[in-house]
Design goal:
single chain, mainly alpha, about 70% helix
């Protein structure tokens, strides 16, 4: 559990002000307020917008490693094709750039 989650739990279990709890856990009061309103952390909300789930990306990474081990590293077009096959629908043109940044 990270500091923000701990602060949310602490706030809901105790009768302190949001500012006091934020100071105690070293986080911004606005961040605590946003979490209490139900906002997700940036990493989690970004994951939900990705074309492939983390499990599907792992499957694609395993396929890439296999291709490289057999001496046939996949091209960009082949990567997009395989991602589309795994997803069951086409992936966006810019998908590959994001995939590469997440998996360097």
């Amino acid at each position: 559990m990270d500091a923000i989650d701990e602060a949310v739990t602490f706030f809901t279990e105790n009768r302190l002000s949001m500012s006091d709890v934020a100071d105690k856990f070293g986080i911004a009061r606005s961040t605590l307020g946003h979490r209490l309103q139900g906002r997700q952390c940036r990493a989690k909300s970004t994951t939900e917008r990705q074309a492939l789930s983390p499990g599907q990306e792992e499957e694609l990474l395993e396929w890439i490693e296999y291709q490289q081990a057999t001496g046939y590293p996949p091209t960009s077009a082949l990567l997009r094709y395989m991602a589309s096959q795994i997803k069951g629908a086409d992936v966006a043109r810019g998908w590959l750039r994001g995939f590469q940044q997440r998996n360097q």
